[in-house]
Structures are given as structure tokens and as C-alpha cells.
Amino acid sequence: MNRIIIFVMLTINIILQTTILNVLTINGASLNTSLLLIIAISVYLEPKESLLYALYSGLLLDTVTGVFIGLNTFIFLLIAYGISIIQEEMVKESYLTPLLLGMASIVIYNFFSLFFVYLLGYTVRLAHYFSFNTFIEIGYNSVFMLLIYTLVSKFYNRRIKEVKY
Amino acid sequence: MVTAMSKSFLNRKIAIITTVLLILMVIFMGITSGDREQVSAVERWIGNIITPIQRVVMTPIHAVQDRVYDIANFAQLNQQNQELEQRLIEKEKELIESRLSESELEELRGLREALNYVSAEAHGEPISARIISKSNADWFNVFTINAGENHGINQDSVVLSERGLVGRIIEAGDNWARVMSISDSNSSVSFKVLRDDNVEGIVQGSVSEELEGYLFDPRMEIEVGDQLVTSGQGIFPEGILIGEVTEIGKSREQLLDAVTVQPAVDFQKINRVLVLGLEEMN
Is 0.85 exceeded by the ipTM? Predict the structure, then answer.
């Protein structure tokens, strides 16, 4: 039952990401809610399950929006696998965890997209990737990561507590 | 110890599966990148399911956007309306004074048919379509429209709006199609200057929404404010407005005049387009 809910949630997310959320951009920086969902889900799930959802979400996003198939899927799989390795060492109740994961994932996402787009012979404008817009994108997605992580945590019956140092 | 061994085995298995999947994705990227003649059956099927849902979701969004835009730009629209009315009056006068009368044009058309001459720019009726989704990936400026092969749209069909050139169709499904806009870095358009059609060059999309390009002949003169139209070379028919020159400089090699062009179409606000379907040539 949980699995069906997650598949439906991922599908609805992709429809919203390519429609309504495209309107909610800040200086051209948009939300990559598919990536954020995969991150949040991967923190709480077994590696094989998070890979399955990463595969599904990536392939659907590539098919619906991509110029070619495979880029989003590759990055989602990589990030889901990476999170599954460090999952047990993570402090899941801390607010810092989703923030750092969100920031790191956006950087990794941009790096691999730049790498493969260049490798496949498409024109790449390096200035775009090192512009102020990239920081806006990282910040925007990180803030939303907190929201999505909170919702996913509640879905898995956990609470985020403040970690006092 | 058994548990540790089985956990290690499971971790290794997951690592192998992940590696295989990643390699598969790299292969898919290689196969599906570049210009494909047709989308695969699976992509077509998924597009046929998803695009109607996207259309339903975007309809109220477009309605709200249009209303908000109208209200926010009331004063500007009012002034534009007055300017357009004035231009219409001037254009009507030009039409009357036009040297080539309609009867002369009919005579020339008859001659053309008699000589079995077919225009290279033969196009069918323009097809109106709505933008239903956009790729929010930074590296491509691609969006999806709610019309496809069933409406007579094919790969490389030209897409424009009432303001000017928008782009071209890169993929088409049954009832949807994907458009690469001219502001995409991988898109290039050959142009000529409206003021002097001997001045020609090429422009390409860039990081910002502006287009960047250069003149073929560095001896030719181009000015800020010049309007650029398609030259007819390549897939875009002649005479479609591309934009206006905003900056002129020298290219890095100091050999060619580099131009920066503000597109006539505002790609942030556009939500309706016209697609020129290709007619069959006899």
C-alpha cells in the first residue's frame, strides 16, 4: 500500500513540477522537487526501494521533459545510492541534515548535468553554471527541502527535533 | 557473523545493480541524444497520458496569468493599443498604394502553376497551440505544447507567436510536441537585417534570454536598434521577426562583429504559439 502511495506521489509531483512549479521561479531558478523527494525518501528507506523510486521518477521526468533519456535517472540513482550508504550515520532528526543534503544534491545535479550535456556534444555555457543564479537555485531548493523532508518524516512517523549543541 | 556476511553480500548486490543501472542510463543518453526522427513508442504512450493532465492543470494557471498580466500592465497595454491603431492606419494606406495589384498577383500565380513551380516555403494552415509544460532543467530551453502529429505537426516544424519567431519542433507525439526555443544554446538562426537585407549573419541562444551572434561579412554595417528577421536559410522561412539588436561588439578573435539581440518574443511570459505545419511537396 505504501509503495502505491509513493508511486502516485512521485507521478503527481512530476506533473506539478513541469506545470505549476515552473511558474514559481525566482530569477529563473526553479524547484527540482523530484530530486528533493528522492533525497527525503532515500533517508528513510532501504537502498533497493529508494533505487526503485529513483529509477521510476528519473525515467518519468526524462520522458516528460527531457531532450534525451537518462540524465535525470542517472543523477537520481547516484544520489539515492549515495544517501543509502551514509544513511545509518545520519542524524535524521536534525534540521541540518535535509539542508546539507539538499545543497549537496543540487551541486551534484548541476555538475553531472554539465558533464553529460558537454560530453554529448551540446553547447554549454559555463558562465550560467557559475552565476549568481546557481546560488539562488541552491538556496531555493534547500528551503523547500526542509518542507518536503518534514512531510516525508511525518509520513514515516518520525519527528524532527532540534539538536542542541 | 552470518548476519554481517549477508549484509555485506546485500550491499555488494546493491552496488552491482546500481552500477549496471548507471551504465544503462549512460547508454540511453547516448542513444537518445541528437536529432531523432521519431520518439519511441514508450515515450509517445507516456506523453499521450501525461500531457492531457498537464493541459488540465495549466488551463486555470494560464487564465490567472493572463488576467494578472492584463491588470498589471493596463497602462502599457492601453498605450500599445493606441500605437497599434496608428500603425494599422498606416499599413492600410501602404496596402492601397502597393505596386503589385491583386490581379497582377493572380496572373503570376497562374504562371507559376503553368511552369509547375512549387514554392520552397509551402506551408499549411498555422496550428494554434498552448504551452502545457516546460523543462525546468537549466541546460535546455524546451517546452511542450498540446498539439502533435495528429494536428499535422512534425519534427522541424517552425513555431512562432504573434510577436515573432519562437523555435522549432524537436519531437512530436500524437497530441503533444516538444519545442526548442531560439533562446536555447543549441539553437541557431540565420538572420538578415530588415533595414538592409544584404547584411546577414547568425545568432544563437545564450545564458541569458538574449541571443548572441555575428555578421558573415565584417565589412557590413549594423546598428543598435536594427530589427532582424529570418533570412530563409535553414529550416526557418524568410521574413519572421527574430528580435532587435541591443549591443554590437567585436568577437574575441576581433575578426567578426558580434551582436547581442533581444528576442521579439518574451519567453518568460509566452503561453500560446502558432506552428507552421509542413505541406507535402509534389
Answer: yes
